[in-house]
Specification:
The protein has three domains: 154-332, Rossmann fold, CATH 3.40.50; 338-407, Helicase, Ruva Protein, domain 3; 419-604, Peptidase M41 (Methane Monooxygenase Hydroxylase, Chain G, domain 1). The chain starts with a helix and ends with a helix. The relative contact order is 0.06. The chain is built from 23 helices and 16 strands. The longest helix is centred in the first third of the chain and has 31 residues, at 111-141. With 605 residues, it is α/β, with parallel strands linked by helices. The strands form four sheets. The chain has a six-stranded mixed β-sheet with strand order 6-8-9-10-7-11. The chain has a five-stranded mixed β-sheet with strand order 1-4-3-2-5, with helices on one face. Strands 13-12-16 form a three-stranded antiparallel β-sheet. It has helices spanning 2-5, 8-35, 43-52, 89-95, 111-141, 158-161, 172-186, 188-194, 212-223, 242-257, 268-271, 283-298, 319-322, 338-349, 360-366, 372-388, 396-408, 419-438, 474-495, 503-518, 549-576, 578-591, 596-604; strands at 39-40, 55-60, 64-70, 76-82, 100-103, 154-156, 201-205, 227-231, 260-265, 305-311, 329-332, 445-449, 460-463, 532-534, 543-545, 593-595. It binds adenosine-5'-diphosphate, magnesium ion and zinc ion (ZN). The site of adenosine-5'-diphosphate (ADP) has 17 residues, from helix 9, helix 14 and helix 16.
Length: 605
């Protein structure tokens, strides 16, 4: 591999530069330092010294005379004086028998040294400097400008990823599908015997943070074969054609190392549909994709090269990439369910010290909809909080606070909220909670708080579903909408005004109501007609309308009716429980945070 030789080169440059510095010092700096100890005198002094007989040796140079003479202290010193046009000089010196004198023969370098010093050496220095500059520039740009088309896929072997299926909690379906691949890489004979062909490509799809990258690493760890990992964005290069060359190189390397796994993370960066016809800037990406398609056709799956890819935007991938023979197998990696969340919490909690009172189930129930990455973060935040509190182990309260931190942001310590506003916020939150609790199919509340958070939430009501439902009935949807309107309803009832505090509630309620009409077939007028298509299932789920403007107007009407009904119902519920609304709000203002149990107890008696 080329990486292996690279590190040695800079050392050679280093030696070259050191050598150059030494030579330069020798040539210019040291002599001038030595010269410093030489005393300069005038010609008269020189002549006097000669006459006195103090001078021992004289050396007549091109433009000066150097001589040694005994000074006043009787010690010998070196002196120089300017060369004066003095025809009598030789006679004067001969007068004293003790003086040795000579003229220096100008030193002549050999032609070879001259050539080396004036040509080879400067060129070598420039070359070395150039290499150093370009290599440091490459590092800064992250690319590899000089080695065209070399893929820099990292090769992981089993020991290096260090992950196995044990590290991935939940996701049993995904693990099962991938176990088959691992098994194939271990003994392909079993599959060949029966005539089965292993899928060439496996696409892991799911929302961010659900463990797709982690799963791929675990597959490498389990199968104990070389693992080439490259991210889609690494194919996109400064130079046109580089991406394609990289793909070619990657597959060449992979085939040489078969059986092995090639993992392309975030494949949507190169695998986007080719039809988009933008502003012509997509040439490079298309070439890369075409090369990938060709390579996937070109190699023989029997050799044991399996290609894993991960994406959270499968809908944007080019159809050609998904046809049989390429990424024909799709493994969904979904958000974890209740059991999955509990398992993920436990996996990550292995690394930290826990108190005895930890109830992971409760944390898992409070985090419906959280991804694996968020759960890992919750455990870490909990550990950080324990350290902050000066404890040696993590308590349940740390984890509970961590859930809120991850979901709603940190507590905003310095926030100044006027008593009047605090009162409105308390009524608003209690309004949500009472409406939620009084509708029998709504989940009970877990916690109500009016401590402002850095995310901008002024308070919130945390609902907990007892057990996870995969289906949502029309009644449940209506109840949810009513709960969202409960906050505003309480403000109206008690203060007779509207505040901006309900903006998020309004958005959420509308989202559900709209989905009921356009996608879930829960309205009277449109029966089972699909009026919207979801384009971005794993990233927020944007929907685009697919109907005539007249229908769109009718949809708006229906949505409004649903919300109005729910709002009315919330007001009615609160009117029936107005006493509770007052007492609970007063209690919340005093306490700032109350638990679900406290709330239910006060509501029921
Ligand atoms: P993705 O690639 O799907 O966006 P990652 O694989 O990078 O997500 O996951 C990010 C981190 O979240 C992982 O390193 C791991 O710590 C944690 N994580 C996610 N899912 C799981 C899971 N199922 N089990 C354990 N940890 C998980
Ligand atoms: Mg990832
Ligand atoms: Zn609200």
């Amino acid at each position: 591999m080329k990486e292996a030789k690279n590190p040695k080169k800079p050392i050679i440059y280093f030696y070259a530069v050191t050598l150059a510095i030494v030579l330069l010092l020798n040539a210019f700096v040291f002599p001038s330092i030595v010269e410093k100890q030489i005393t300069e005198v005038d010609y008269g002094t020189f002549l006097t010294q000669v006459e006195k007989g103090n001078v021992k040796t004289v050396e007549i140079q091109d433009n000066k005379i150097a001589f040694t003479a005994a000074n006043e202290a009787g010690k010998e010193g070196i002196y120089v004086t300017g060369l004066v046009n003095d025809p009598e000089l030789v006679n004067r010196l001969r007068a004293d028998k003790n003086i040795k004198f000579s003229k220096v023969i100008p030193k002549e370098n050999s032609p070879l040294t001259n050539f080396i010093m004036s040509w080879v050496f400067p060129i070598a220095v420039f070359f070395a400097l150039g290499q150093i500059l370009s290599s440091s520039m490459q590092k800064r740009m992250g690319g590899n400008t000089m080695s065209f088309g070399k893929s820099n896929a990292k090769v992981y072997v089993e020991a290096q990823t260090g992950k196995t299926f044990k590290d991935v909690a939940g996701e049993d379906e995904a693990k099962e599908a991938l176990t088959e691949i691992v098994d194939f890489l271990h003994n392909p004979g079993k599959y060949k015997e029966i005539g089965a062909i292993m899928p060439k490509g496996v696409l892991l799809v799911g929302p961010p943070g659900t463990g797709k990258t982690l799963l791929a690493k675990a597959v490498a760890g389990e199968s104990k074969v070389p693992f080439f990992s490259i991210s889609g964005s690494e194919f996109v290069e400064m130079f046109v054609g580089m991406g394609a060359a990289r793909v070619r190189d990657l597959f060449k390397q992979a085939q040489a190392k078969a059986p092995c796994i090639v993992f392309i993370d975030e494949i949507d960066t190169i695998g986007k549909k080719r039809d988009s016809g933008g502003l012509g800037g997509n040439d490079e990406r298309e070439q890369t994709l075409n090369q990938l398609l060709t390579e996937m056709d070109g190699f023989n799956g029997e050799k044991g090269v399996v290609i894993l890819a991960a994406t959270n935007r499968p809908d944007t991938l080019d159809k050609a990439l998904l046809r049989p023979g390429r990424f024909d197998r799709r493994v969904p990696v979904e958000l974890p369910d209740l059991a999955g969340r509990e398992a993920i919490l436990k996996v990550h909690a292995q690394k930290i010290k826990l108190g005895s009172n930890i109830d992971f189930n409760e944390i898992a129930r409070a985090t419906s909809g959280a991804s694996g990455a968020e759960l890992a973060n919750i455990i870490n935040e909990g550990a950080l909080r324990a350290v902050k509190c000066g404890r040696k182990y993590v308590e349940q309260s740390d984890l509970e606070e961590a859930v809120e931190v991850v979901i709603a942001g940190y507590q905003k310590k310095g926030a100044v909220i006027s008593p009047k506003e605090k009162q409105i916020i308390a009524y608003h939150e209690i309004g949500h909670a009472i409406v939620a609790a009084k509708q029998k199919e709504s989940a009970p509340v877990h916690k109500i708080t009016i401590i402002p958070r850095t995310s901008g939430a002024l308070g919130y009501t945390m609902q907990v579903s007892e057990n996870e439902n995969v289906l949502m009935t029309r009644e449940e949807a209506m109840n949810k909408i009513a709960t969202f309107t409960g906050g505003r309803a309480a403000e109206e009832l008690v203060f007779g005004t509207y505040t901006s505090g309900a903006s998020n509630d309004i958005e959420q309620a509308t989202k559900i109501a709209r989905a009921m009409v356009t996608r879930l077939g829960m309205s009277k007028n449109f029966d089972m007609m699909a009026l919207e298509t979801v384009t971005n299932q794993y990233l927020g789920g944007d929907a685009s309308l697919a109907c005539s403007p007249e229908t769109a107007a009718k949809i708006d009407e229906e949505v409004l009716t649903i919300i109005k009904n729910a709002h009315e119902r919330a007001i009615n519920i609160l009117k029936e429980n107005i006493e509770k609304l007052h007492t609970l709000s007063a209690y919340l203002i005093e306490k700032e945070t109350i638990t679900g149990e406290e709330f239910m107890r006060m509501l029921e008696n």
